[in-house]
Amino acid sequence: DEQEDGIQCERCHEYMLLAGHQVVGANAFKPHVYAAVERSFVQAPFTVKMYVCPACFQVSQQVSEEDRMKTVQQFL
Q1: Which residues are CB-contacts of 52 (< 8 A; sequence separation ≥ 6)?
Q2: What is the distance of C-alpha 59 from the center of its chain?
Q3: Is pLDDT of 62 > 90?
Q4: DSSP letter string, the chain
Q5: Distance CA 55, CA 59 (A)
Q6: pLDDT value, residue 1
Q7: C-beta separation of 58 from 70 below 8 A
Q8: Does residue 9 carry a pLDDT above 70?
Q9: Are 48 and 65 in contact (CB under 8 A)?
Q10: What pTM was computed for the model?
Q11: What are phi and psi of 47, to 5 degrees?
Q12: Planar angle of CA 4, 61, 32, nearest 5 degrees
């Protein structure tokens, strides 16, 4: 009930638990630059939310809502 996202594990389909947030800095991320637009899709720094399955311990990551919105805005 405490987390907003109801992410299901792709392996066993249990609901995953939010484990925490990770800030990815420019020195820890090498972006792929698309030739057509001459820039990357995601630019550092950004935050990812990490989820862990309590049944099989599969890990899943998702770019934070704030950084998803920044990514969308850069292409408008």
Answers
A1: 16, 17, 19, 58, 59
A2: 11
A3: yes
A4: ---S--PBPTTT-PBPEEEEEEEE-GGG--PPEETTTTEESS-SSEEEEEEE-TTT--EEEEE-HHHHHHHHHHT-
A5: 11
A6: 65
A7: no
A8: yes
A9: no
A10: 0.80
A11: -115, 140
A12: 130
